[in-house]
From TrEMBL:
One of its GO terms (cellular component) is mitochondrial small ribosomal subunit. It comes from the Eukaryota. This is Small ribosomal subunit protein uS15m. Keywords: Coiled coil, Mitochondrion, Ribonucleoprotein, Ribosomal protein, Transit peptide. The keyword Heme does not apply. It is found in: Mitochondrion.
């Protein structure tokens, strides 16, 4: 059972390695048997070259480069803080801290953690809004804090554009601030404009949301547009044809009128002669004759009655 398999393998080798018809199986057998080998009747098959096929992996495309967030409406970036500035929690203790270098460093912005810096900025913004709008300015404070967070996250999202989670969080903040600004605009337009000037924000009036109608509606509209285009094309063809017929008719009319003028001159007639021929007497409709029973029967049998129409 092993011999047919070997022969089939050799034929496959011949087909792959040598497409020439002069090379046969006997030649391969004679060249494949190594007579100097110590092990008798060992068949050494020729090496078959099978080209290696490389399977490429799917390369994940890079996300589109984010260069700006202009649609947020922010007209300025977040300013940098002076490293020697005291943190918000230590303000009012300048006399106790002054003179102690260690306390000055620990209470300064330069040695603060990210959480302490965020809290410092938020408290400063909140104090500024309360100073401008009063204690009953919860909506303005929320808008100002959202603006602070947006301006902190925009440089990060531009630098690390593969971080989709923070980008989505930033977009949610932008859209929430826009909704709050729209609400403030409806409540008090004067405070709305004042807040925009203070925060350096450009407000864009939101568009009405377009209704999603689906692919069926799009296909229906496309089909209707094609039908209208075909109608316009056919109407244009009919108009062109009508213009050609008008042109030929006017040419024919001019020829006939010229012949009539020549005939009138030939026979010495006046133009009024034609006008008299065109006078047609008006025919008045006459009422139908009222038939008797016998006349109706006769009309049904013969289809004719004398003086039926008067």
């Amino acid at each position: 059972m092993a011999a047919p398999k070997i022969v089939h393998y050799l034929r496959t080798c011949l087909y792959v390695t040598s497409p020439s018809p002069q090379v046969n199986l006997r030649t391969v057998f004679s060249k494949s048997i190594d007579k100097s080998s110590h092990v008798p009747n060992i068949l050494y098959c020729p090496c078959v070259y099978v080209p290696h096929r490389a399977y490429g992996r799917k390369v994940k495309p890079k996300p589109p480069k984010i260069t700006h967030f202009e649609y947020s409406g922010d007209l300025r970036t977040l300013p940098a803080l002076d490293e020697d500035t005291l943190l918000y929690n230590f303000q009012g203790l300048e006399d106790e801290i002054k003179g102690d270098e260690t306390l000055e460093r620990l209470s300064s912005v330069g040695y603060a953690s990210a959480k302490q810096l965020a809290n410092h900025r938020q408290e400063l913004v909140r104090d500024r809004i309360i100073e401008l709008f009063g204690l009953d300015s919860e909506l303005e404070q929320e808008i100002a804090l959202l603006t602070l967070g947006i301006r902190q996250m925009i440089p990060y999202c531009i630098q690390y554009r593969t971080d989709k989670g923070n980008k989505i969080f930033l977009l949610k903040r932008i859209f929430r601030r826009r909704r709050l600004l729209t609400h403030l605009r409806e409540i008090d337009h004067e405070r709305f404009e004042w807040l925009l000037r203070e925060l350096k924000i450009r407000y864009v009036i939101p568009r009405d949301r377009e209704e999603h109608k689906g692919w069926k509606h799009d296909k229906r509209v496309a089909t209707q547009d094609e039908a209208k285009a075909l109608q316009r094309q056919k109407l244009q063809e009919l108009k062109d044809k009508l213009e050609e017929e008008k042109k030929s008719f006017y040419e024919f009319k001019s020829k006939i009128l010229a012949e009539i003028e020549r005939d009138l001159e030939k026979y010495g007639l006046d133009r009024s002669f034609l006008d008299e021929l065109q006078v047609v007497e008006k025919e008045t409709e006459k009422p139908h004759k009222i038939l008797t029973w016998d006349e109706r029967v006769k009309l049904g049998m013969t289809g004719y009655i004398k003086d039926y129409y008067g």
